[in-house]
What does this fold into?
Amino acid sequence: MAMNARSITLGIDLGTTSVKAALLEAAPGDPSRFVVLASCARAARAEAVTQSAAAGPQGQEQDVSRTIQALHECLAALPRQQLREVGAIGVSGQMHGVVFWKTGQGCEWTEGEAAPVFEPRVVSHLVTWQDGRCSGEFLASLPQPESHLSVATGFGCSTIFWLLKNSPEFLKSYDVAGTIQDYVVATLCGLPRPLMSDQNAASWGYFNTQSQSWNLETLKASGFPVHLLPDIAEPGSVAGRTSHTWFEIPKGTEVGVALGDLQASVYSCMAQRTDAVLNISTSVQLAASMPSGFQPVQTPDPLAPVAYFPYFDRTYLGVAASLNGGNVLATFVHMLIQWMADLGLEVEESTVYSHMIQAAAQQEDTCLTITPTVLGERHLPDQLASVTRISSSGLSLGHVTRALCRGIVQNLHSMLSFQRLKEWGVERVIGSGSALSRNEVLKQEVQRAFPFPWSFGQDVDAAVGAALVMLRRNLNQKEA
It folds into this structure.
């Protein structure tokens, strides 16, 4: 079947805790919109014991074969007839992490029970973005990057530096490296060397987004194994074509260069360049597209609350990422439940949630001020939470819950304000995430702090975003 007759696009997201696949096609009669035909998610359950004993309990690794197994379970659950009609594949995944493999021996294609599948062979564990083996002292000993983004523990290049110092023998078994999503794309296409988008390269550190190149001179001077660094390609471009039939997906199907999950998530619901996307689930992300021509200052500032990440077409996303979101509400609920248990009373979590949100909805204002940063912030790691302006008339459950929801939003606003979004040209905000969709009070507070037109109910979805990038690319090519 010719590519242009195969109108369905498959999107894959390889997340930290789950793997998701989605099938999309352009909406009939309106190619600018899309329809999700089917989707499936599976828990990855890929946590593994670290391969380097020196990493200790701070090490966070995942077994790649378990992630691939979850991916295959997702594909097996999708309609076979629709998989036959897939004309392009988009892939995204968890950023920052690194996996190593051996060229030509990274996988083996086998006839699975229902379809051809690939199995990882000479492949290391994935050292994830949550890995904590690089201490502050170790990071301070590394060369200064020529980049607007600083390096942190869990970033690909920091991890490679650590392995070079602590497990040099380990690195000798492999000759290429990438994120987990780069590995999957390279494997599907049979690429001898992985390709990496600037989205994922920037997340590794030591990558200059302006020149679109690794800091090779700096790295070489420190003895870094630069041969492990992938070649760079534009996000939204094609990495190659599938080298085998995969499930029902025909051999020769286009596969896009792997994207970062942040960028793919934002892309899934940012309909216009003038939209901002606010996602409140466990933590909070507020992202907006920077005006064209914007270039971040090329020196890292770890204390800046807004970070700039490569997006598409050489533009940037401005992102305020707060560590304090739905997890703060959960902490408050658990505190209440614990207090009640201490008083000899048992109460269900869901009951506490619904009652406290109901009480806060009736309490439209409060003088109570809560700074909710129980987890600190990346730019203020030592900050804790505080409660001020406490009066005897402001102690009801409604007052406290209203103040807590307002505090979560005000903390975000202190990182990225309404005024700043306006200066960037934002005209509307898309609200998504489980903590926002279930909490009417939080919705009221975000609208109060950011008085834009709002649209709720569309959830960010990196698998959908990855598919959408390829779908739009192919539609644009047809029009051209």
